[in-house]
Every structure is written in structure tokens, then in C-alpha cells.
Amino acid sequence: MSNVLVVYWTATGNTQAMAVKVAEGANADLKEISEIAPEDALKYEKIAFGCPAMGDTFEEAEEFLEWYLQVEPGLEGKKIAIFGSFGWGSGEWMEDWSERVSQTTSILFEQPLMANEAPSSDDEEACVAFGQRFAKF
């Protein structure tokens, strides 16, 4: 088991594509939320969460939100990264999610990583680099 987990939810596959590249860069375990129980996710020292925007808030991704709310209380002292794709707007949901994480005692890594729609080859390279930096964080 790695000490880094990349865990995600995806609606169209765009955030999954990002998650694969982030995990590649971090040499991390990769799980979709249906593949890992919240208590098992909390066994990791570092967790990168991926969720797309479904409008202007990730909270519209109800399946992810329900899972994340079970994990959130256990994030104390953990190193956290967040990423996701969006189809319209400017990714305001990531600002809200960053603020939410900053109100916990977890340690937020860098600015959130976002891709507009399907990640381009440049976005994929950015995901790998993000994962590499997160692994060293």
C-alpha cells in the first residue's frame, strides 16, 4: 500500500482521466469512491480527491458528496489535494471546496488542479506534475 491515495468520482470520464495521471505522477493507489470505504481511505497519509463540477458546485455530485462527508471528519492532520474537471463557469466550486478544506485541520496542497472538459495533453502533463509534487509534499 502506498502512503498516497488518489480517490475520485466521475460523471463523464474527464475527472477519471485526470485521476489516472495524478496517480501516475504520485505513484499512488488509485480508487473510484465505490472501490474504497471511507475508513480505508483514511488509512493513507496523503489523499488527492477528484470530483467534477456539476454546475457551479461539486455538491451537486451527490454520490461524491455523501462519500466525502463520511471522510471529512477524519482528515485531521492529513495532507490533501483536490482536483477536477468542469464544463462551464470558471471552476468556482473549487474555490468553495478549498475553503471547506481550509476550515479543517488538514493541510491543503497548492491550488486545486482543474481542467475544462476532457483534459488536453497539456492538462495531462499538468496532472502528472501535480501528482509528483504532491507525493513530495
From TrEMBL:
<dbReference type="Pfam" id="PF00258">
    <property type="entry name" value="Flavodoxin_1"/>
</dbReference>
<dbReference type="InterPro" id="IPR029039">
    <property type="entry name" value="Flavoprotein-like_sf"/>
</dbReference>
<protein>
    <submittedName>
        <fullName>Flavodoxin domain-containing protein</fullName>
    </submittedName>
</protein>
<feature type="domain" description="Flavodoxin-like">
    <location>
        <begin position="4"/>
        <end position="135"/>
    </location>
</feature>
<dbReference type="InterPro" id="IPR001226">
    <property type="entry name" value="Flavodoxin_CS"/>
</dbReference>
<dbReference type="InterPro" id="IPR008254">
    <property type="entry name" value="Flavodoxin/NO_synth"/>
</dbReference>
